[in-house]
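Teaching assistant's notes for section 4

Start the section by putting this record on the projector. Ask students to predict, before seeing the second block, whether Histidinol-phosphate aminotransferase will look compact or extended. Collect guesses on the board.
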Amino acid sequence: MSVLDLARPEIRAMQPYSSARMEASGGQVFLNANESAWAPLGDNGVGCNRYPEPQPKALVEGLAALYGVRREQLLVGRGSDEAIDLLVRAFCRAGQDAILIQPPTFGMYAVSARIQNAAVIEVPLADDFTLDVDAVLAAITPAVKLVFVCTPNNPSGQCVSRDDIERLLQGLDGRALLVVDEAYVEFAHHGSVADLIDRYQHLAVLRTLSKAWALAGARIGSLLASAEVISLLRLIMPPYPIPLPCLAAALAAFSEQGQNQAREHMASVRSEHERMRAALAALPGVRAVLPSQANFLAVRFGDAGAAYRKLLDAGVVVRDIRRYPNLHDALRITIGRPEENDRVLDVLGSPPVAGRGATETSTAGEHP
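Reveal the predicted structure now:
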């Protein structure tokens, strides 16, 4: 069975949009895309008057080398969100098919499914935020086309073991596509499972440059999957996903200087992670600091609302995650610069201010 048998037949049969840039071959004078012949003010040689490549060759080759896959196994787009949306639209028929998630988890899986009018089946994580493979497999129905697994998990920080990923892959063979979201894998003790793509055609892996590579504002994410899945998604992907300034920022990040800087920053995050974990656990009012292999810590408080308000009053914004299952008393705190982390500790360690009450839960959002 081909993994494409799980996809919507009308998507497999459709004719993709062919952009002017796709059809251009060679040439020095470009008069085929109705672009302006003049660069805008302040362009500084970027060339924003021209459409970018649909899948910029230099970026795709750099990301493929970084992630250890072949270029035909990689699709680059507007953050991980675009890849999630494309997967749901390609594999889930509206009103008929479903995805499966394990809450608490990243909210965009369910959002994309509901926009597509696909059902969302939930198999909650255990109380210690570990994934129950047997429960996930038992919940699979013929309607389930995509199973999303976030590891390290957002918002808990807990990881799913490679053995459990393989058990899921074996149990889902011929039944559903497993999508492993590795947005935070650079901070984890284990590596990516992207090397399993050649063994399991029904595995897809999400990666992003937003976290470890400090390019959240550039909105560049990747989907790693079999060449067949990548080709399928390109049928429905808008033609110009990567703006030229974002491409320039990503290529600069992949320079020798950029890679050295990224490694230094990741090392700082890991060091600060351990310092913050120990320091937060010792603070009065902190009930527990959850195990995390990401660039954040989920922290349980005796009064999470008061802690959130106290930090906000001091100008420190953290994430209120009390709306998530099993996290009704928790805040998520990103690991920042040492001085920013010191500020968090100073504020939380200071005496409470009389009359301060709990704040309302913030709205749901994406991986940030």
